[in-house]
Design a protein that fits this description.
Helix content: 55-70%
Order of helices and strands: HHHHHHHH
Radius of gyration: 23 Å
Structural class: mainly alpha
Oligomer: single chain
Length: 182
């Protein structure tokens, strides 16, 4: 005779998030030097705890395990940020200052046909790149605001603007030559 399925017990993860979440967030934010990326790193901790939970038997130390995972995730983020800054250091002289719009972002100097072509190519960008490029170059938002509006890290916002503009420049290079070189 079939019995009704028993309701699933509450995951210990729910309890851990409530009990240790605030202190882990503070720990990660201190390691990273601010709250900007702490939430992203903390999400990695909760995903790790969900996918491969620590032992919870007698003598186990869930809090210590969570701290170790959080510390390692924060160190990974710091290491990745350091590598990225080092890679970008040589490009500083070639990158336009953040407060200035890129010279190729001004559509008012283009012919109506060229503006239509730029709009077509913008519409083909992946959604996050399209929105990030729009927010940056049309609305003039800074990267922190773009990150907030797109619900991502500031690093991700910068990457979306960069990759979107890189793609547009590549795809529209012949248009630029036609409109401005002659």
């Amino acid at each position: 005779m079939a019995t009704e399925a028993e309701p699933k017990a509450s995951l210990p993860l729910d309890e851990w998030v409530g009990r240790y979440g605030p202190e882990l967030r503070t720990h990660v934010a201190r390691m990273l030097g601010g709250d900007d990326d702490a939430e992203d790193v903390l999400q990695q901790v909760w995903i790790a705890a969900y996918r491969n939970p620590p032992e919870t038997g007698p003598g186990s130390n869930v809090r210590g395990w969570l701290y170790r995972v959080a510390t390692n995730a924060a160190l990974d983020r710091l290491s990745r940020d350091r590598r990225r800054r080092a890679a970008l250091n040589g490009r500083e002289s070639r990158v336009a200052p953040e407060e200035l719009a890129a010279p190729d972002a001004d559509l008012s100097k283009l012919s109506p046909q060229a503006r239509a072509r730029v709009r077509e190519h913008c519409a083909r960008l992946p959604r996050k790149q399209r929105e990030a490029v729009w927010l940056r170059w049309v609305e003039g938002e800074d990267y922190a605001t773009i990150a907030r509006k797109l619900s991502c890290s500031e690093e991700s916002a910068r990457a979306n603007v960069y990759n979107g503009m890189k793609r547009l420049r590549k795809e529209l290079f012949d248009l630029w030559k036609k409109e401005f070189a002659g």
